[in-house]
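INPUT
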Amino acid sequence: MNAKLLIAGALALASAGVAVAAVQVYAPTRARQPWATVQQGKYLARAGDCESCHTAEGGKPYAGGRPVPTPFGIVYSVNITPDPDTGIGAWSEEDFYRAMHDGIDQQGKRLYPAFPYPWYTHMTHGDVDAIKAYLDTVKPVRQVDRKPKLGWPFSMRSMLAVWDKLYLDAKRFQPDPARSAQWNRGKYLVDGAGHCGACHSAKNMLGHADTSHPMQGGMAEHVFAPNLGAGERDGLSGWTRDDIVQYLATGSNRYATAAGPMAEVVQASTQYLKQRDLAAMATYLKSLEGPKPETPDTPNKDTLRAGAALYVDDCAGCHMNNGAGIANAFPPLRASSAVQAAKPDLLIAVILQGARSPATSAKPTGLMMPAFDNKLDDAEVATLTTYIRNAWGNRGGDVSKGDVAKLRNTLASAPR
Amino acid sequence: MAKKLPEVDVVLVGFGWTASVIAQELTEAGANVLALERGSWRDTVPDFSVTHIQDELRYAVRKEIFEQTRRQTLTFRDKPDQTALPMRELGSFLPASGVGGAGVHWNGQNWRFLPTDFLLRTHNEQRYGKKAIPDDMTIQDWGISYEQLEPYYDKWEYLCGISGKAGNIGGKIQPGGNPFEGARRREYPLPPLKRSAATVLFDKAAREVGLHPFPAPAANTSKPYLNPLGVQMGQCTYCGYCEWFGCANYSKASPQSTILPVLLKKDNFSFRTHSSVVRILTDSNGKRATGVVYVDQNGREYIQPAQMVVLCAFAHHNVHLLLVSKIGVPYDPQTGTGVVGRNYAYQVSSSVNVTCKERLNPFMGAGALGQVADDFNGDNFDHTGKGFLGGGYIALWNTGGRPILQEYLPKGTPKWGAGWKKALHEDYLYSTHMQCHGGVMSYRDNYLDLDPTYKDAYGNPLLRLTFDFHHNENAMSKFLTDRATEIAKAIPNRGINSKPRKGDYSIVPYQTTHNTGGAAMGTDPRTSFVNPFLQSWDVPNLWVMGSTVFPQNAGYNPTGTVGALAFWAADAMKRYIKNPQPLVQT
Amino acid sequence: MDKRGHTDGEIRAAQDCASPSRRSFLVGGAVVVSSSFLLAGCGGSESMRAPVAPRFFENDERNFVRAAIDRLIPKDALGAGAVEAGVDDFIDAQLAGPFGQAAGIYMRGPFRLGATEQGYQLPFTPAQVYRLAIQRVNEYCRKQFGNAFAQLKPDQQDTILHALEDGKIDLGEIPSANFFNLLWGNTKEGFLADPVYGGNRDFAGWKLIGYPGPRYNYTDDIERYGKPYDAPFVSLGGASPVMCRLSDSPTGRFHGPGCEYAQLPAKVHYDALSNKDGSRKWPAGNL
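OUTPUT
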């Protein structure tokens, strides 16, 4: 369709006093890619969970505007619909590749690594091109990007050049010939599109992930993303590969249900991945080392007694008296790696804010847990979480009232 | 000026159980379905959350979970020669409001009617002679048989995850189940709930007096359950806050816990809350429904056009809508002609309190945790010489021990003061009760019409209910109460309080929300409003769901039959959609 | 440490004690302005009943109610009675809220008396019933016994209560049995409802009967036939609940410090994928 004619026609009608619905003027700057490429790109965009970050709550898909909290302030995701003025419609394939691989946009501006280009950098050129091909087909939305809210000096993009110099290892994924094809595929996905380490790896003060001890637990927005390496108590040693696949594909397995930010990841991303890709990722994860196991202190007996009483009053209705939960409905707290994670943030956050199981096509129910932030004060939440982390054979560190208060505050002031 | 909206294929009035079933079935068949609910959106979290929902005062005593009479109620009188007055306070029955309807707050007591219930007139005439049925008892056959409905009972039971023990599989009586039930194709999807102390005592006593007790079929899951739609339910934990409360752990079957997670994701389904339907619109001939009019919470009116209109509201409201919309011929009790409002029925209940010697912990319970003797239901026994037809079940229900309302104290307990305090102190943990739950026949002078004086919040006349129990119900109820008392006496006890039903029907004390009739189904348009597929005779694109279509009420809770009929009708609707015309030629 | 962290609770209560609040009520057409200090929990330990200032009752009404409920559920060897359990606070708060105002009740006319089977047909809200009836009962008591109800001897009070119950006292438009049933009903409610509503203080009512409170899992206990269930008393507000303030809104929702447990739990914050009305927020997808 001739775009110019379309505009002229719309104007004519408008001036004739006829109400004209807003006409989407879509003028692609290049021919559409083959359908197979677009489909591949859609798949990879799902693997990369692009839509989650690039869609604001209640906003149009891929139009950006979602606040992403960083240690330095808030960065807003940008518009990656093909709108030529406010989106990336005018970007070439190379422009897009440079953004994904080097963290530099079309204008030469450096991007904040809240956009996980240090992970996407591993992706092949072909895969990145496919994603661009897919994004070109997304409905264009006219929406101006919001400016980040960062304190000085982080508001200076020139600082990012320093960051990149220090931390960006911009190279594509190199398969390890000593490992199987499946392992390599898994690592490619986990370290690339999946950017799992962006949450699950420890990050330094400047937000750089510890790649020498990958996936041993890290902060994900305001909660702790647990260790995905080995660990009897707080890692995946007890999980089989099938357990991992089931978790990513459906949102839960016999040990855990995805909660918090991970629920969104499952629902928007991993549930769409092919079984063999998930199996590859599981193979890779199962090869990872865990952190050195620590034996936490034994908590105070009075705390445990008080916590046990709170548990019976508030939690046992779903998680049962023995902490075993209800199969396929409410996750077990007993022998749970999420519960016994190095940091209790996830557990505290779930108790304060409630949780919703991901509603995947395999498990559509999306069972929910209510929030208890208006029921239990900081001391009670601390007592309760200390108990849960140490009941039924669990071992986890104490939780203090201050821990809870701090997280409660952070969550309450989190941008939406 | 009412705003006209884009047409949909199917509009459902109400968004409770039947609407959820119909919506799920018809969207699968490709139809574009819209449900209009007058109440608000409700879901397990946050509305029925643990540490919130177990609030007896708020939900059961102040009745916050139900429709408030301020918005909608009816007028009531026992006899046609009285003046009907508004039901200002909720009492005898408790209609719901909000997404999920009464499916949110029911107990989960789930039954199939007996094969003879569907052929009530034919069967009783054959067995006891035409004279056994009084002239003013307007009972009639349903137009379908139990056998036709059986596959749909099964579908409903597997949707809900009913916990129970089959009593008759393919004609073979099974030990441990109800030996009187109609033959079913297979077992219940889940085994029976755990038994409480009270149900164990009842079971023993009922056997001693020669009856055949069995665990009540329960829409409370005894185990975690994945239903055929792929929806995951939890497991009942016997919290004792079932009826009049939502379920906090997904273990009571409701639209939210069995259908909505799948239904709400569909592109071809939508719903609107705070949308009270006040009128069904028809074309100038009155032979075709064109849609409905509804009012939102700001008082604005909308016209919602549709190809099909399905009434899925509470029994009363379906009839009310038909009457105010002037669809069908209103029933005239004088002449006995007309069908809209005809054959209203209810449930006749009585109870026997037992204060046992054994400690019972009544607060541990579930909505359908019960042991039942069905020996005196329907025509399960010989009525020769009894002076009444029909019957009911006798059940020891252990639904909970909620302190304000659930006290089952012995006879002679003082009403207040130190004596009352003492009785409560000594008896609360030891007391339980049996319910006699009897069917009600239809009568010429029990009916629904429009009130001449009182109006609702929308300016429509209120529905007027004219209803009383007749000799048949009173005699039958007394019979059941006597049998229950015999069972009670066989339980080691320190006090019994037999409470037979007395006097005229009163709208004040809660009895059941099993209101039936007003738009009966049947094979004859002179005595039924809908055909056996629940399609209106007069307006073929108008359908009526719910217990509204019962021609009389049997001795069981109605929801199981309501659910089965909804599935049955949905199949018919799918045929109708392919070929829109009356499915039964007159 | 009790539910609210006792020291924190004391500090907060002290602040509440310092701030007055005014409430106005529309009762039977007359506007009653009542200024009150809400002293919920101020300075009181569990065993000392801290006075809660009236929200609805005038002083003489409150005296009537306290005296009446003291006879309806007296303190005795079995334990606390209605007064100790705070039932007058309960009734006071209920009458000030949507229940008292008959917020959900069909109150359109014409009003006519009907058969008993047709239920309540008076044009009075519960608040109005109390206001009118108490006044008239006191008048009757003064005529019969020379004093208001609250000043009578217990056996005289019992006589009055029985007479009310039996419909034997003329209260004008309000049949005395109606008033008695309302009063008794509210008394029982206040004695046995969750303590967050102000009555059943220190679980007095539940201790009497042996009801442990609203827990949600008896799976392991229900088959232990005949055995006592030993768990501490608990309320919707935890193990040491305090009364919260009722709002005046028609929904009857609670507000104010100490009422958090009675509110709906906060919305789950991670269910970003559907709106509150159930409409989808699913990614629409392309192609």
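end of record. The first strand of chain B starts at residue 3 and ends at 4.
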